[in-house]
Design goal:
Elements (H helix, E strand, L loop, with lengths): L14 H14 L5 H12 L2 E3 L1 H12 L3 H7 L1 H10 L24 E2 L2 E2 L2 E3 L3 H30 L8 H36 L1 H24 L2 H6 L3 H37 L9 H44 L1
Parallel strand pairs: 1-4
Antiparallel strand pairs: 2-3
Helix pairs in contact: 1-11, 2-11, 3-5, 6-7, 6-11, 7-8, 8-10, 10-11
């Protein structure tokens, strides 16, 4: 990337051109949307893997709460969630995963009738199922990211599919382990503080949520180097942090634009009820838009990385000239 004026730094890449290029890339290779379409169809029409019987004793305790506490905790919402929750929804993994519109679909019915229900017999089986489902989600996510990256960056050197998939799974597993350890510690800390002082516990909880929101974008970008440049997990993580360090304002604007566009259209896609065949239209629309935004983010990541290199060289030359 070269600047038109050698005396000024090169301009950062534009958000609109990246979004346009991403949707054009997916339109040219529309087969990449089969990943989110297939996953959503499974969430829509497939069976539900439930833990309602395992959670029954805990849910009964919620039912026995006094009226004021039940209203504060919104126990009907909690009870309804666990009675309809499907463990298969964890197949939509983060940060590496296939985008889904129906991952939180808790409807018991579909256009084909009542969906089958599979109850897990014990907590050990539930933990094993969660681990297997997460691994499947990471694998599908790595294959999906790799396919979209190849569609978005056709001129780049080919990257080994197996190597990228393995490195993507390793990085996702690392983030999952860190999130689990941090989550257990955080809940333990907040629980102790709530017992001492409810306000202090609430304050620490809000700080924790703020930190988690701040880490969302760096964690999400941490795998991009694997699929755009064939980097190993640690190198890809470093590249994502470097991109955030030098391109934070523009990268944040791009992320906000993609989030607003994707979330706004998701509201439209969710209008048809889950027991109507019109939901298929929403699934197809969501798959195309989310894949287009992912392709655009790969393009923007590559262009921002090139811009950082060009801006760094310009800065070095400016310092030499000044010296």
């Amino acid at each position: 990337m070269q600047s038109a004026d050698p005396s000024s730094p090169p301009p950062p890449p534009g958000i609109i051109p990246a979004l346009t290029a991403g949707f054009n890339a997916v339109a040219a290779q529309v087969g990449v949307i089969l990943f989110p379409v297939g996953l959503d169809v499974f969430f829509w029409l497939g069976p539900r893997l439930q833990v309602a019987q395992l959670m029954a004793p805990i849910l009964q305790e919620f039912k026995n709460l006094d009226a004021e506490t039940a209203q504060t905790l919104n126990t009907p919402l909690i009870i309804g969630f666990w009675q309809n929750f499907s463990l298969f929804s964890h197949m939509r993994t983060f940060p590496l995963g296939v985008f889904s519109l129906m991952s939180l679909n808790m409807m018991a019915d579909s256009p084909l009738g009542a969906r089958p229900v599979w109850e897990l017999p014990n907590f050990l089986t539930a933990v094993d199922a969660w681990m297997v489902i997460s691994l499947v989600g990471w694998t599908l996510g790595a294959l999906y990211f790799s396919a979209v990256a190849r569609a978005a960056l056709p001129g780049e050197p080919p990257i080994s599919q197996m190597r990228a998939t393995l490195h993507g799974i390793l990085l996702a597993g690392l983030w999952a382990a860190l999130a689990l350890a941090a989550g257990i510690f955080f809940l333990f800390l907040v629980g102790i503080l709530m017992a001492i002082n409810a306000v202090l516990g609430l304050l620490v909880g809000l700080i924790g949520l703020f930190i988690a929101a701040w880490l969302f974008l760096p964690i999400y970008l941490s795998s991009y180097g694997i699929f755009t440049a064939g980097e190993n997990p640690l190198r890809s993580l470093w590249s994502g942090l470097r991109l955030m360090r030098y391109g934070l304002p523009t990268v944040t604007f791009f992320a906000l634009a993609a989030m607003v566009l994707g979330s706004g259209l998701d509201t439209l896609w969710r209008i048809p009820p889950a027991d109507s065949w019109l939901t298929l239209v929403g699934i197809l629309g969501h798959a195309f838009v989310s894949s287009g935004l992912l392709a655009a983010s790969f393009i923007y990541y590559r262009e921002m990385s090139a811009w950082i290199e060009a801006a760094t060289r310009w800065l070095q030359k400016s310092h030499l000239s000044a010296g």
